[in-house]
Amino acid sequence: ESGKDRHPHAGAGKISLKEALGGEATDVHLFPAVSSTPEDAPLSGAKARVRIGGVLGPLTAVDADVDGELLAMLNNPPKPDFSTGLPSGRRLRVAIRTVCSGIAREIFIRVLPETIPPVFGKLAHLLPELASVTPGLVLVSGITGSGKSTLLASVAMRHLELGAHVVTVEDPVEYLLHSKTTTGYASQREVGLDVPDFASGVKMSLREDPDTIIVGEIRDRETALATLTAAETGHAVFATVHAGGCFGTVDRFLSLVGGNEFEAMRLAGVYLCGIHVTSNPAEEKQGLFVDRTYEIFRSNDAARTHIRDRSAHRLWQARLGTSEKDWKLTIRS
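Above: the chain's sequence. Below: its structure in token form.
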């Protein structure tokens, strides 16, 4: 029996959007009928596919039984990519696109857990130095949906527990960060609403007395240089990049900053860590699960030499003599 056959919506005639968003789904793909209009019920006749346990379910009719405020936002979004919340407190990240030259729409909803999973606690034995607010640069990579945002949110919550001022620059804001038990607090900025772009958001944050800075994504040279400056000036900086592995995060960062000798020297001078996250669906008798594997690189003397020489392709040599359990962990959820 395949994962799709075991999907909870296999064979369902119609599903409830409210139940899908409030249940085990991680993603909901909505396909409004081409004939639906703003004057009409915006999701009248819509169909949906729901991802549960890493498996995307079959195309099924959907009952748009969510509250009117969410329906209104899906019909008239504030921008193509935005986030919102359900009455339960669960957060949603929404992307709305047009297809077929604007004839039809597709709506992609990422459903975030009601509480931030304590991922960092399970990784703490691999990254003990990050259990405190350690100045430096941590680069996280992985495909969409692998768990990068969840990992960063979990780290942010740990730093809030330590009383840190955490500044985030996101597009859009996903998890809402707050601590009721410590003096730590978060200032969350959204690109396009609170700051014009990631680079400006990072530069502005340096005047806000931050302890930790979290950057949703490094996309360009200006943002890369801003995060490097923040790490050099005594801040704990976390950011995501598009790369093919934990060593690739360093190679990608060097390519963004230009990779010249001066910038390589700057990068070699800060504490540097690369984390690559992969996720794969897994099946057990109890149902569908997701295995997330975290592969970690941290700088040492050998790695810093390779970075100064702009030889990121040799960083794997810095791991020689270590055991896999020292840099790799799989967590099932």
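The domain at 119-332 is CATH 3.40.50.300 (Rossmann fold).
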